[in-house]
Fold:
Amino acid sequence: MKHTVEEAARIEREKILQELKDGYSKHKDTSLYNAFAATIEKYAVPLFKDGAEWQSKQSPWISVKERLPEEEQRVLVGFLWGLWKCDRYSEYSKYIDVFTYEDGWWIDDSYNVYRGKDVTGDDIKVICWQPIPSFDEILEANRDVLERIKEKGD
Structure:
């Protein structure tokens, strides 16, 4: 079940408060319990929401409405492919492919060409993109996996 940020924050806050109650039942220190409970009430939800907001901005995908890639940059592109009618797709599928952005055109490896920021051709609408990571970036991101493979002798 998906929760809103507020619901998730409330659930986490209640878990911490329950732990405090359990601790209070053992130690019977009311002042400590009240201080911790007040601190959690004041700071936990805003901190949780700030963390959730930060996390939501960590996607590597960049909307074409936000900005376009540099000229002649080869990028991963997310696009919709389907039947285009009245500024909306009536039926579509989501795809990812490699395109080069050149002079306002999206060009795929088969030299199919799609125009501009709001591509609305017969069958495609580019919605987002991200830089293709270098081999070194991929290795660095997966260093822990490589280390485990090396340790196992696979």
Observations:
- The chain has four helices and six strands.
